Amino acid sequence: MNRYHNNQLPPGFHAASNEIKAINTLYGLIMGITADQVINDNEIHFLNLWLKDNEAYTRSFPLNVVKQRIDDILADNIITQEEREDFYQTLSKLIGGTFQETGAAGGFSTSFGNQEPDELIVNGSTFCLTGAFITGTRDKCEQIITELGGIPAKSVTKKLDYLVIGALASRDWIATSHGRKIEKALLYQEQGSPVTILCEESWAKFINITN
C-alpha cells in the first residue's frame, strides 16, 4: 500500500508520469498472465494485491476496470470457472488479444469498450474523435462527419452521441487525454447518458455504408 508521511508526496514524485508507469506495468502483467490463455486463482489474487499496492491509480482507466472486475469476483470469496473465463476475456480485450492471438506486443487495445450498434445515426448526431485515425487527419474525419450531417464535438459531455477512438495509438495512449475521454464516456454511461463508444473500424464501416 502506498502511504506517505502526513499525506505528503515524496520528493521527485510526479503523479502523471507515475500513473503512466503503473498503467504500463499493468499492461505487462496482463500480457504475462494471459500468455497461457487461462486465468488461475493465484493470478487473480496477485493482481488484487498489486492493485492494492497501487491504490492511488485505481480510479484511472483501465486500472479501475480491472479492480471492479476483481472486486466482483472476490465479493463472495468463491471464484467460479465462469468468472475465470469472463475475466480472461476482459483482460484479453484490454490488450487487444493475447500475443498468441495477435503475434504482436503492442499497448492497450483502442477497441476495448467498443459498443457497435445495429445502426449509426449520423445526421444530427454529435461525434467526438479521440486518438489518431487510419482514415485520415482529425480534420478530414470531422469533415466526413459534417458532410453526412453530423456535428463534430471537441469534448465528451452527457449529451454526446458517439465517442470514436482512432486505431493509431502508442502504449501510453490510455493515460493521456484519449484515455480520459474514454473514462469520462464510461462514467456518463453509468449515469444513464446515451453516449456510444466506437472504435475506428466500426465507425468507418458505418460511414462507408452511409456513403
Automatic annotation (TrEMBL):
Superkingdom of this protein's organism: Bacteria
One Pfam family in the UniProt entry: BRCT
Signal peptide: none
UniProt xrefs under InterPro entries: BRCT_dom, BRCT_dom_sf
CDD domains on file: BRCT_DNA_ligase_like (cd17748)
BRCT domain span: 117-203
Protein's name in the database: BRCT domain protein
Native source organism of the sequence: Methylobacter tundripaludum (strain ATCC BAA-1195 / DSM 17260 / SV96)
